[in-house]
Batch of 2 targets.
Target 1
Amino acid sequence: MVEQALPIAMIDAVTAAADWVVVLPLVLCLIGAAATLMLRRAGALTFVFSLLILAGVIACEVSLLLRVVDAGPLSMTMGKWLPPFGISFAADVFGAGFALAAAVVTLVVVIYAKGERGAEDGRDGFHAMVLLLLAGVTGSFLTGDLFNLYVWFEVMLIASFGLIVLGGSPSQLDGAVKYGFLNFLATTLFLMALGLLYGLLGTLNMADILRVAPAANPAAMAGVAALLLLAFGMKAAAFPVNAWLPAAYHTPPAAISALFAGLLTKVGVYALLRALVVLLPASRDLLEPVLISVAVLTLLVAPLGAIAETNLRRAIGFLVIGGIGSVLAGIAIPSLAGVSGAGLYVFHAILTMTALYLVAGLIERQTGQFDTRRMGGLYAAGAPVSIAFLVLILATAGVPPFLGFWPKLLLLQAGLAENGWIGGLVTVALVVNAVLTLIAGSRLWAHIFWRSAPAELAPGQLGTGHLLRIAATGALVVLVVAAGLWPNGMFEAVRLGAPDLLDPARYVAAIGLAGGTP
Amino acid sequence: MNTIIFRTIAPLIVAIMLVFSAYVCLRGHNEPGGGFIGGLIAASAIAVLGMASGAQAARRALRLDPMAIAGFGVVIAGMSGLLSLFTGSPFMTSIWLHLELGETTVPISTPMVFDIGVYLVVFGTIATIALALESDGGDGL
Amino acid sequence: MTPADALQWTTLVALIVLGLALLISVVRIVVGPTLSDRVLALDLMTVIAMGFVGAIALRTGQMIYVDIAIALALLGFLATIALARYVMTRAAGRDGGAP
Amino acid sequence: MAIAPFAAAALAPLVQRIARPFAGWVLALVPASLFMLLLRLVEPVMAGGAISARIGWVPAFDLDLSFMVDGLSLTFALTISGIGMLIVLYSGAYLKGHPHLGRFFMFLLAFMGAMLGLVLSDNLLALFMFWELTSVTSFLLIGFDHTRQAARRGAIQALVITNIGGMGLLIGAIAVYQLTGTWDMSALGGEVRSSGLYGLVLAVFLLAAFTKSAQLPFHFWLPNAMEAPTPVSAFLHSATMVQGGVYLLARTTPWLGNTQAWTLILVCLGGATLLWGAIGAIRQTDLKQMLAQTTIASLGLSVLLLGLGTPAAISAMLLYFVAHALYKAGLFMVTGAVDHEAGTRDITVLGGLADSMPVTFIAAALACLAMIGLPLTLGYFAKEEMYLGLLSLQWPDIATLAVLLVGNAMLAGVAMLILIRPFLGPVLSTPKTAHEAPIAMLVGPIVLGAAGIVASVMPDWLGLALLEPGTLAVLGEAISGHLSLAVDPTNPLLWLSVATWALGYLVYRQAAALRTLSRRFEVALGWTADTAFDGAMFGLIRFSGAVTRLLHHGLLEIYLVTVFVMLALALVGPLLMLDGYAALLPTAELGNWSAKLTWPDLQVHEWGVIALALLGLGAVLFSANRLVAIVALGIQGTAVALIFLLFGAPDLAFTQLMVEILSVVILALVMTRLQLDERDSRQFEDLARDGTLALVCGAGVSLFLMVILSGSFDSRLSDLFAATSVPIAHGHNIVNVILVDYRGLDTLGEISVVMGAGIAIMALLRSRARRTVPPAPTPIRAPRRGKVAP
Amino acid sequence: MDYVLAALVGFFVALGIYLLLSRSVIRMLLGLVVLGNGVNLLIFTAGRLTRAAAPIVPAGLDQPTGPIANPLPQALILTAIVIGFAMFSFLLVLAFRAYQSLDADNTDNMRVAEPVDEPHPPLSY
Amino acid sequence: MNPLMTVIVLALVWGAISGNFSGLNLLLGAGIGAIAVVLLSRISGSGRSLRRLRSAISLGLLFIYELLVSAVKVTLVVLSPNLRATLRPAIVAFPLTIKSDAEITLLANLITLTPGTLSVDVSADRSLLYVHTLTLDTREALIADIASGFEAKVREVYA
Amino acid sequence: MMEAIAIYTGCGLLLVGSLFSLVAAIGVVRLPDLLTRMHAASKAGPVGAGFVLIAVALLSGDAGVALRAIVGVVFLLLTTPVGAHLLARASYRTSDQLGGNMVLDELKSKTGQSPGA
Ligand code: NA
Ligand code: NA
């Protein structure tokens, strides 16, 4: 046989079953989605089944996170092919942590949705799409291959398409048209960037890109980076390509908005962080003025929308965008504090934004209105929703000791440590963003909760299944508060994870490229 | 589209398309084709059936909910990758069995199962879409 | 001229002729005037493309391309009947029936 | 220790529910016990020690909760817990029967905890957190009477202003940390003052202090905060929270203060605030508003004293803080009692209440006398100390002295107004028939008034317990006690006091005239910081509305234009700026144009296919209606497939053809149900814009691709696939082996997308089949019916 | 020939973008298809063109006998084509449903989620 | 066609396209064919089975011949310089004597593929097949031509 | 020798096939109305493609491929007339001008009476 003449193509070592935790969450989600689809006529069984799947996913991700914290990045290359020939999955602290947070909020949302949807069973494919969405998100967080990232983006996108139209009201369809075209365009541009990158480097594996990128034509690499910035910026809803978000996020049922708010933009901005800071730092430096402008404008313009909006969930949508501005600030100043802050912000936003939308759903149900001008009287009507909303608004504005404060603290540290106009500009933008966010939030609070209920409104009816909804929301809010009060674990994780972004040597070593590390 | 000519010849064309689709799927590993194209041809067959005999009839002929077929496809594609858990290899490591049946060797492998999964997904999904569009606005979904 | 040369030349000529045929049928798609004319031309294009595939198979010696031609033979008419259906239904709508 | 109030706060609603009428008494135990605990610390602190404690919080971020009790913080802490106890008691009675009394206690106790944390924290970051927490709890308390817009406005105003300051504090804290590497204030020395960032740090700290302590020009939120229930005003907006800024200035004096800039800014702004507040107080007739304005003035006075930074000034500041806390809290409670019992707080309609409310009157008298600064009150000592350091006869001191004197005099005048107008003179009829307030409302003012007297008769103890440790904490040197009850006519200070009282009496007599004058001035000015806030807020809202409407108009086309403009920039910008197109140009040493410009190596039929593609694109572009465009779409699809076939990609050609056919099928199926046959009706300017954009992007992509093609290509991956496809992966079709083996995960994702598309389309079509929208609220704006002609 | 293909890619992209800006949902969809084809061709070209044999190892052999076309971009494009088709199908049905529900296929007239008469934010607290 | 027959035909089609007529492969083909037939069993497939192979082959040969002639004829028409003079398009109603669906379908398709004729429609009562012709000579000649040619052969095959 | 003859024959078939395809295209452009154009498309077209496929069968040197090529021709002949018929029928029923230049139209009078079949 010619076996001897063959190049080394496969990994020698035996893969420990424990290493599978890096890929099992994804596979569980996918198979779970498919199985719930097959079970969709089985009534409440689909709900129970998807809960089981989510529990399994969370269990895997907890053990993954523990392993990563313990022993550094963990990777698996599919099909036993030596990277970069096969597709690598690799979890660092950030990836594993975000994946876990995503799974947790998904679980919460599924429970909430059970209450919201009432008698509606899984026939419309809700559970399948939620699991598919989570699969896309998990894959995006954990993959170590750029084209594979594109695939998971698309998985996430199609699942979100399905969810956004669930119910099919006219405004949903309108929102979905904008959401659909702009987001699919974004992934197409991503694909375009990938094609160019492949033509330049001949590889798609992230670790391999790290190895070969420095030798490539810097102008072309900067062009690719700019395209990636545009594509991921669109996914992340960065100014000025953020229009799809406020156009669409408020249209589907609240649980679905919540899921979107928690997951979608975060994946985009995390991809941006990885692409620009980890993979193409040299190109990132060339694009720095652009990044700064994008970050600053996003920080400044987004909260204006939250102040201007009278549709509750649209207003919150602008807060989501503002948060993206914070992460962009971390990418614009990629010091240790900067990327730590960006990472922590993503974690915070996954939990807080989801919770905020869930509370918004409760408010809408209680008042029967979408429009804050027609709301009111909820403060007198009940404490839990009021407190939850206030806590979340404060967390969003970065008021201590709530969760959002910690990333803001790190980002401000990064901004102040950066010399020159860049640091000052970003710092000022962050501060102005915080103040504007607080103005928007306190106005919302005053209008929804403090003001007396309009005459025609009889608040208080939360409808059937409200206990599930309140319990789910409450659990998430408690998580937000607890994480804010005891942030040590997060900081511990960030301390371990952030250096890997600035110096991906451990990550590359974990993937174990053919031909050794650079 | 209710013409004798079309209605009469459709089953024949459909049967041939289905057979051809299976061929394209199974041959994909060595020649152009594969699960996706195979599934597409099979789904086209269902679309032809739908146009000739109506979506209801086509759905009856399928017996199974086409979306469930698609789900099943993803399940077996995923499961075929999971098998390598038991061989101490990473996800989706191929496993090959060469069955000796008489004088010929029939290779059975996880990539083949995977490709069949692809076939079923594409078939189920495109059939769903075609039939749903055929019968104005999704009754039976 | 060896048989191999002959094959090379013939396939080239055939490809050129078929390419010309494709371009000519585009004229009808563009000019119309009715939708059915365009559909007809599109259908013809598929059939010519089949020939094109066959000619490329001969030119490159990759006989397996035949499968593509078979698939085209089987599926090419699908677009035609779908569009014919459209022609039919739209006219019904124009005559005052349901769209 | 700071945790206890929070725990109590969390339990407050429960306690309120269980111990209904006695909740106030029960909950007052919390601050009471804290007060006792703090009292036990007085002795050690007097002995010259600072007590510190440290709790690990975020070790990963090098952040501990470090607390320190020294003279300054203990003074504040005792005041907070002591007055807090009385306020809790008072509130129980004042808000008796209020449905949200539980929440009220919760916020109040949480606030107290935050305030204690603020003054006890040694860690700058922890201090900031408690600082922000006081803002938030204050927001909730000001807006307690939330159905009134004025209350909401006051709350938002206070929150926004103090939050702006809070941001300053945060920036300052971080800057200090970056300069010194520690969050602990006790560890700081002169590093900050000597650093280049001193100006910035000073500015942001002052911003924080001035917003919190309502200094000009941020003073306006404080009067509006009086929308809060009176106990809140008494506690937060006189005795404690607003003193946070003063505390911050005192706390930071050792490492930030006593520079030229510090002194200048503090003295000037403090003095201006003092006069502004005093004038404002005269302008008002509402008791509560008068008190609010005097609070602004008092805060200005404190800031001025801190700015002077002399031992005497610091002593005076400390004395004044205690005195002010006692009398002002007392006066607020008295005001609340009057309001509660008489139904109004307007001094022009009140009169002769002393008869019907004798105890209240006594409490008011005790407080007002301290405010006037008569001997035997703490106010007297405070005033003496203020004047003490300014007898140098140099013009800055004289000017400062004059300001202080005038300010004190006006405050004395206001105190007389407050005491005499409502309580003495003829009895006027009031909305409610006045009678004595319940005991819980009287305990507070009486105790506070008495405490002032008791303290003032023990000047030596005051010196030892308050001034020595306090000045030690602020200045780093203890000023020994020199307070004395003796009245010495040779002391110029006495005559300054007398002058103050005399001037104060004048103010009292001419109050009406001054008020008119002051109001005229206000009208003439036509602009106050308060209206400016509204202007700014509404301006911001309008601006936000305009910006948002401009950016989020709902026109998908414009959103897309934005994206494509960005795309054009991304495609062309970097290559242009970084000279990337050089790769396409002839280089001096290598080749020349002729090498670059060889006729492309394409055969006739390949040109034919490319022409087919272009024709197909043209056909789509120029097709008269959408349906024709759909048919024309088939041309370019076929052409693409043939290109794939020509260049060795049969799988792609196969798939492309199948997909093309099915796309047309699905399009036709859908179009069957649509009635569309309009032309592409773009106006010329749109056409030009879209065309330009499209061409720039297209050219950008082409050139980019050419740049890449001009470089070498690394085919490592494909080489390995070709070498191992058959022997290892057992497949002859390498593309398929990549799809199901090497990169099988991509395909797994891909089929998930396909499945997802199926589910999504099902969801879309089901919603129509069912016509059942999930039970969600109906949108306000009815969807526009009917097709709107563009 | 690479450069000719590169130029052709530009035409695809340009037309795709032009159609995407047409406001008519169906035309925009066609634009996405054209743009997608352009991007697929771009990947194909970026992987370097060759007239060499298809990447199929002849039966009975272990390795290709001569140079072959680059298989990796082909696999990537295949995945992209499939995904693009799935997305296209969804967007098409969405356009159809939007037309039914909103009575508009012109995006200028789709103004339910972001209404034209959007209320101004209230100037109050 | 009866199901068994169909499965056999499909198995043979399988063998043909997979280029392998080994027993095992045909078995696989039969299996796949059987699945297809099961799928189609609910679609009413009325019709009569092919009876006479010889007739069928004879029909096939006739058809191929006619097809080639047809292509040439069309070519001549298309390439004729004076198109207007050459063309005499018309639609003729051809009275059907065969009645079964399969027969009519076969006939219609054959007509479409052969010289100068194209099946446009079948009347509701299946008595008439409307045939379009490029170059009408006389109506009767055309009808006679079809009746004695394809229709007769089709009837033979299905007899 | 036999092989050479096969190759030359194949080449001939290929040329004839492509020429028929060209004729079909020309016909579709030249002929005056839809139904006449359909003659070109549905006869010359498949014959052209069929010849090419038969050429492939002849030149492939592989029985399997040859068989498949023949099967391809059969499929083509199976499907083309169906498509043509459906298109002709649909167009005829929906268009008013189709009968314009016909010398005889026996369907025209009927369609009014029997719209569906
Ligand atoms: Na394949
Ligand atoms: Na595939």
Target 2
Amino acid sequence: KDKYRVAWTIYVGWMPWDYAAQQGIVKKWADKYGIEIEVVQVNDYVESINQYTAGAFDGCVMTNMDALTIPAAGGVDSTALIVGDFSNGNDGVVLKGKTALKDIKGQKVNLVELSVSHYLLARALETVGLAEKDIKVVNTSDADIVAAYATPDVTAAVTWNPLLSEVRAMPKTALVFDSSKIPGEIIDLMVVNTAKLDKNPALGKALAGAWYETMALMSKNDAAGKAARSAMAKASGTDLAGFDAQLASTKMFYKPADAVAFTTSAQLPATMQKVAKFSFEHGLLGEGASSENFIGIGYPGGKTSGDKSKVKLRFTDQYMKLAADGKL
Amino acid sequence: MKKRVINRFPGQGAAAVLGLLPFLLLLLAYAWGSQVRLEANPEDKLLPAMSSLAAAVERVALEPNRRTGELQLWADSAASLQRLAAGLAVASLLALVTGLATGMVPYVRAALAPFVRVLSMVPPMAILPILFIVFGLGELSKVVLIVLGIAPCMMRDLQQRVMELPSEQLVKAQTLGAHSGQILWRVVLPQTLPRLIDSLRLNLGPAFLFLIAAEAIAAESGLGYRIFLVRRYLAMDTILPYVVWITLLAFLMDLALRGVSRWAFPWFHQGQERA
Amino acid sequence: MKKRVINRFPGQGAAAVLGLLPFLLLLLAYAWGSQVRLEANPEDKLLPAMSSLAAAVERVALEPNRRTGELQLWADSAASLQRLAAGLAVASLLALVTGLATGMVPYVRAALAPFVRVLSMVPPMAILPILFIVFGLGELSKVVLIVLGIAPCMMRDLQQRVMELPSEQLVKAQTLGAHSGQILWRVVLPQTLPRLIDSLRLNLGPAFLFLIAAEAIAAESGLGYRIFLVRRYLAMDTILPYVVWITLLAFLMDLALRGVSRWAFPWFHQGQERA
Amino acid sequence: MGALLEVKQVWKEYGSSIVLEKLNLTVKEGEFCTIVGTSGCGKTTFLRMLLGQEGPSRGTLLLDGKPMPAEPGPDRGIVFQRYSVFPHMSVLDNVTFGLEVTRSRLLGRLFGGARRKAREEAAAMLAQVGLGHALERYPSELSGGMQQRLAIAQALIKKPRILLLDEPFGALDPGIRADMHALVLKLWKESGLTIFMITHDLKEGFKLGTRLLVFDKPRLDAQAPNRYGATITYDLAIGRDEPALLDEIQGAVTETSRFIHDSR
Amino acid sequence: MGALLEVKQVWKEYGSSIVLEKLNLTVKEGEFCTIVGTSGCGKTTFLRMLLGQEGPSRGTLLLDGKPMPAEPGPDRGIVFQRYSVFPHMSVLDNVTFGLEVTRSRLLGRLFGGARRKAREEAAAMLAQVGLGHALERYPSELSGGMQQRLAIAQALIKKPRILLLDEPFGALDPGIRADMHALVLKLWKESGLTIFMITHDLKEGFKLGTRLLVFDKPRLDAQAPNRYGATITYDLAIGRDEPALLDEIQGAVTETSRFIHDSR
Ligand SMILES: Nc1ncnc2c1ncn2[C@@H]1O[C@H](COP(=O)(O)OP(=O)(O)OP(=O)(O)O)[C@@H](O)[C@H]1O
Ligand SMILES: Nc1ncnc2c1ncn2[C@@H]1O[C@H](COP(=O)(O)OP(=O)(O)OP(=O)(O)O)[C@@H](O)[C@H]1O
Ligand SMILES: [Mg+2]
Ligand SMILES: [Mg+2]
């Protein structure tokens, strides 16, 4: 029996993994395909990806940008097995005492440097004709950004939910930009090791099966759906109302068909180009990277972007399609 | 007659009152600060009112968690204390073995002492990523962080303590015909144990620190895990009781270790009181 | 004739070779591990080859950063060392004042010693949010974290050291007509200074720890900042040299403090060597 | 001239253990009292009472007819067996210190001419005890005998009325000890000091003192060794050699000593 | 019967400082050698050479005609001034230890009947030194004199051929010391041991020894006090009281002592 370990961290779009594991949904699907899957919670997001990259996990939840800059740039051939959602307001830029994005000029901005927050900020600045040199970035750990924002020193911040909602609740705070303005660019994925997946596709099938069973369960507004969401809310440290509010700013792909459509759309390669450019400019592709095309990215149907001979991040619709077609 | 301040001693009662004073002042300062902030913003989470703290304590300590059915505070404490105990035990054992070897055997000392000295300067936090990768994210890596954090200092400390044993004793044991092993086992080891407890007491604080740091990064339960989990929401009503609880635990462990040492090694403490 | 191992001492040369051995072994183990991993995955970032490490060192130490134009390692070191120096200075001052007061004046001791003892058990990491709010996010809060992390232990330590001064000296000073202030200033303080340096040396490790923790949480530069930043893309080729560099810095600071103490307080060290 | 020191029916107890009981003594200015007695019988405790570090549990202690001050002061100098000098000061500074603290109440430090003058006085004092050649050394660079000379110089610079010596030569080797005896006798004769000196060595007591005080427990109770305290069992004016008496005292003291140490 | 110990032209140097020079000595089994000399003149160093802790820089040291072993061993027992006993063992265990380590080479611990027997032997030894009533106490609960008795019992249980004593009674008060003298003499007479005992007290040396060795520096150089080492300047068979000789030795030793300590 093959054994696999996948890691997850607390984030609205990933809470279903915890629920699926707690409720035995993952075990059910793993049993069906004759494998074992251990779902491990990691407190620190970056650490979970590092662990995955180093080989401690066979799968891990992460955003599209981190999938490119950490495992792919680290030479670990990775497959984006499930495209769970994209952020549709879940990440945002907030200002204290100001209400317009262009007022950010000259300020210190607290955010998790080199994360999707950083990317969001760069995209936001573009929209008002500013560049990163017009502001000063202060690296702030996600666990402390709420406390940091409560201090007078901090006047601007970029963060994600549930931290964003905490921050927005503070006095004199305005949300001046959020990810709903760049829909589909910040994507939350379940990424698995390509070699492991190729060796035993049962891993992909079991994970996809468990995921979409959970999706179906939680998307309903009946008692069972509410109970599921309440459990996820509790596990992420909030209540049902708070969790639903976070879901509202998340474009969940509850139906596998929607996810397939998104993954096969032309927007995805374009988004990934932007992400690669940002990553390269910030040195995230490693010191050996000569251009933003240094790493190849594969898409459904054999399309690629970047260096074709070095495809390390692969988007696939294969397993989501099986789910959509009810073949799991 | 007026005495110099260095010659004036408070009575027992006065000393007790004086000792409580700073704690009371802190409490008052907190209550005042909390009130000021809450008046300005009733939703303020930073300095919750005493009543909210009490409610939070009740919730975490007495009400079963809805999801897991556990009493959260006790489950967290149990998880953390297990890790801590494992870390302390391994560190003590390592320190004892290394301390005895480097303290007693000149060749081993020449080989290991410089390395241990450098090792004790390595900031363990900085190599956390490596630790997690080598030892995984399970209980092991947390224990290893604690061990890595405190063992080098304890090793150096114990080596020092072993070397401080009067050389007269070692000579004496040799003139009684003991070989190195017997000297280790019957003369040096028993005298090192109470010193090990001393060293352990000194390193309790750092051990808690590393425990919390490790739990902050990867854990599913534990005191540090909880603090970092709820820190995202600035839930000071949970954090503050946890901090007080951790402090209390550290304090009690320190007391307990001292008690154990006094009970198990009376000769050590008699000697100390004389000196 | 065969001697007991405890009686066999290595010569100077042998001792030096033995002392280097563990370092060499570590280096070899690293090189081997690195090679194994790189053969499996040439892009592996966890244990970069020696050559990559060298390249990274060159890059961070000698080439201006593309974005900021600074020499990264030196800029980071300068930022961190400033914070560290400020933290150590404040902690030393606090420890000196409190240690002298609690060590010498029984009433102050009764009032403060229990509080300091409890304070030294509080895990400072856990109360970071409060620190932020009170001291802001700037340099101050980082310095405060260092101070909060090491000052309570140093205070206890110095109190202990002051109380260990032979009471004969204090009596003698009184029979020479000195008042409390003069005894403090001329008898106790000068003898406490070398002990303060000792205490500072012991607390260098923890101070670096808190520095790194503070920089990991919110900073724009610094050694801890860099380590936690590049951890994002698992750039061990940067992290490892930084860790070695921090260790070296700590080591050098320790040596320097010892040197200063020997130079400024020869009487203290003569006494020690005798004892 | 009245009595310098009067001890009247003094008891000293620590909790339930009685250290000294029914102590009576009158000492005139200029006497040299040597105190002997077995270890633990309260000699140091008595000295601490003279210093003012301890008060009597019962009875009165008068200095010049007035109650003994409750603190050490510059009228009563002291030399301990060890730790009497300041290790962080040079020999000269150790002695100058006593002058500085009274001449500069605020800072405890003199400057300029005042400093020079104080240092000259101190150097003269040091020359008297034979340390004129070691002014700039630290105490840790001195032998035990030189350290004790320094401690004596340090005490004498304050011109105390009473000098208390607690086994000052206990740690010295016999040859050096004889030199120190000569020194102390010389200083005592020159200055007219009143000296109390504790010694373990009965012969030393006989040789130096004008008066020998023997502290001993007159009653021994094997069940409760601390039930009865020590008191002054012999109080002799000396000046002659009395070998028989010496033996008698030695015998009595030794017996107490054996008793105390075996019944611990 | 040949000589037990032969010291032939032994020098001991540490770096450039010469501690002992041209030492010659032959000691027969059963002698009681007392060693006196001023502080720092190498008495302890000589004892360390007899122990085997130090080798001579030049010359030879023969025990029973064979080179001195390079390590301490059970044929040469030792009692130091302090730290001679194991603080973590009861009085009885302190003495039993010596039997256990040879009878149980692996564990250093005896069990059952063997243990009972060893404890009985140890108890008998302790009774001989007058500690029969204190078997279960820890050393910290004993007075100084009792601790030294214990240290002696501990050494004697191994039936060493040579017993080395380094100022064993230096820290004891004079009454207790006299008792210890009686004890040592008794044990020596009963056992036929060879004893080397260092003392600071010349009288003690005269009283106890059959032979007195005086360590002294025959040449003094004020410019370089460590240029010349000490050697044995007097080697006397004793058994009579010789007050004039005692004074002569005392004088010579004191002079060296003054010289060394003032030129430091
Ligand atoms: N602060 C104290 N509290 C309780 N007991 C004390 C205290 N100080 C001294 N003692 C006891 O008083 C007794 C006398 O002690 P002291 O030091 O005066 O003896 P001593 O004659 O000077 O002995 P030694 O010759 O050993 O110096 C001892 O039994 C000691 O334990
Ligand atoms: N390991 C060593 N290295 C260098 N010098 C040493 C060493 N051991 C002893 N000495 C020196 O040798 C000299 C003799 O020392 P030793 O201890 O033998 O004297 P001692 O006669 O026993 O004196 P005391 O009466 O004070 O015990 C001293 O000057 C000492 O400093
Ligand atoms: Mg005394
Ligand atoms: Mg000696």
